[in-house]
Amino acid sequence: MATPAQRTNTWILNEWYDQAVAGTTGGYNAENQLWTWGNNQYGGLGQNNKTNYSSPRQIPGTTWAKATGSTTSAAIKTDGTLWTWGRNSSGTLGQNLGAANALRSSPVQVPGTTWSDISSGTYYMLATKTDGSLWSWGKNSDGVLGQNQAPANLQGRSSPTQVGTDTDWNKIAAGWKRSYVIKTDGTLWSWGMNDYGNLAQNDRTYQSSPVQVPGTWNQVATGWYHNMLLKTDGTLWATGYNGVGELGLNNTTKYSSPTQVGTDTTWSNITSASYASAAVKTNGTLWTWGRNNYGALGHNNALPAGNQSSPKQVGTDTDWSSVAMSEDGATYQTFALKTDGTLWGMGYGDLGALGQDNQLNYSSPVQIPGTNWSSIKAESRGGLMALKQF
């Protein structure tokens, strides 16, 4: 057997071993595992049961690429197939089952093999395909599916339905009765509920089809009634409800158009929950603000103390890479990844949401067992999912 050609400083030891045994060179395929834990009331953890788990458990398969959801979960594999499981309220599973509140406690495939990205909102889903088209299904509250329907005729969808005909959709953010999507040219579009100026249109008018938000944008994070928005120049902006300072503007004023948070140009990753927000900067620091229920802001305190109306740094570490927030009613968890592949959580620990094999609350970051974590998706109702890559 020929000895594989050497490739200096590109593979770890296990990859060298696998390739040598196979007698091949190059083309090593990483293993992508999907793990879940926490609340499993509707089978959203994908474990073929409705048992809650207080520590991470793997969903079968090693080709998972992206994941989202909690009570209704969805994930895309590296082959472009889309899978859903959990609660089917209003047809959220996309399985053409109608609006019946059926359950699937393990992954079931949605037709198609060219899915690219997926985002879970409240009883609905947004997804893109590799051709840049945008699709929606589930409950159509306030026109959130983007199907250009009149208020009196808001019909839901139990299987994926294309939004318009454009093929340049890129980054998607499904939220509480409203949708945000960024196109490949950096333009941002919003539609759905607009009670508090959530759509960033400088009004409170509901929209059932995409409407452009001025500016050039890189990322969007949706809370219940507020949004955090990141521009391509690294500036951070906010819009919507602001009852406890979740917009980070050092006040509790509502804003119906994007308003800049401070003057920094080094924000790189953002997330939001009901009444709280978090972000990572390019220097690896982690910042949180808003309501501090159960210590979810990670400042080693909890309500009634600790609410923040402007960003406050979590500790002094400078190796954070990304952050995500989960919520279950008025309870929160914050999860953050470090550059070394470790995963950390803080906040409400009921039903094992922090993955510590207990139900304790933590008001400062505590490490979740395991390494090689590559992404975390924290949605509502306390069900968590994270990807590992080997």
In short:
With 390 residues, the protein is mainly β. The chain contains one helix and 28 strands. The strands form seven sheets. Strands 2-1-28-27 form a four-stranded antiparallel β-sheet, with no helix packed on it. Strands 3-4-5-6 form a four-stranded antiparallel β-sheet, with no helix packed on it.
Explain what the structure shows.
A four-stranded antiparallel sheet has the order 2-1-28-27, with no helix packed on it. With 390 residues, it is mainly beta. It is globular, with a radius of gyration of 21 Å. The protein has one helix and 28 strands. It has one domain: Regulator of chromosome condensation 1/beta-lactamase-inhibitor protein II (Methylamine Dehydrogenase, Chain H, 7 Propeller), CATH 2.130.10. It has one helix at 13-22; strands spanning 32-38, 53-59, 64-69, 72-77, 82-87, 103-110, 115-120, 124-129, 134-138, 157-162, 169-174, 178-183, 188-192, 207-213, 217-222, 226-231, 236-240, 255-260, 267-272, 276-281, 286-290, 308-313, 320-328, 331-338, 343-347, 362-368, 373-378, 383-389.
How is the secondary structure organized here?
Elements: H1 13-22, E1 32-38, E2 53-59, E3 64-69, E4 72-77, E5 82-87, E6 103-110, E7 115-120, E8 124-129, E9 134-138, E10 157-162, E11 169-174, E12 178-183, E13 188-192, E14 207-213, E15 217-222, E16 226-231, E17 236-240, E18 255-260, E19 267-272, E20 276-281, E21 286-290, E22 308-313, E23 320-328, E24 331-338, E25 343-347, E26 362-368, E27 373-378, E28 383-389
Antiparallel strand pairs: 1-2, 1-28, 3-4, 4-5, 5-6, 7-8, 8-9, 9-10, 11-12, 12-13, 13-14, 15-16, 16-17, 17-18, 19-20, 20-21, 21-22, 23-24, 24-25, 25-26, 27-28
